[in-house]
Protein: DNA repair protein RecO
Amino acid sequence: MPLCFGEYVLFKGKNLYTLSEGKITNSFQGLLNNLEKLTYSSYICELIDICLQDEESNRFLFKEFITCLYLLNTDALDYEILIRSFELKLLKATGYGLNFDTCVFCMKKLSSTNYINLFYYGGVCEECPKEHGVYVSKGAYNALRFLNQTPMDKVYRLNVSREIKDEIYRVTSSIISLNYSKKPKSLEMLNYIKE
Structure:
């Protein structure tokens, strides 16, 4: 059964594991009844699969993943903003976290900027070169900063326009595409259905 959070006892055989015992904590049935929620939950599962090696442990990312599933299972917040927050947490947990506090070149403190360097993972001040990155509005930069430092259960406080959501998606999807072995395909289905 997909999306079952629980405790499991597994035995490792020559080629695969055998499930010996299991106790389900939450089956997230609410996610299975809504195409948008199901697609977003499939997407975060796919991200985990892409960014971690088999049998690699990452407790921080697991906690963020479960939190995201619980929040997706409610109707309390904007799913798109929640997913962008998860993407930023995933990037941070796997060594590709963005720096929004100082310029990635000269280390000058940034209050805001309109450029994010995708190779050095952060904002660029007015004086430093604008290369290998994307221009964003100051609103999108500030929203990214907020999502990066705010726990996922608090992202409901952020209310942004469609344009800013698109800018945030452009930044996170670019970094994910550049740094992981393959590009997630789950969201393409949702975008296709929405059109």
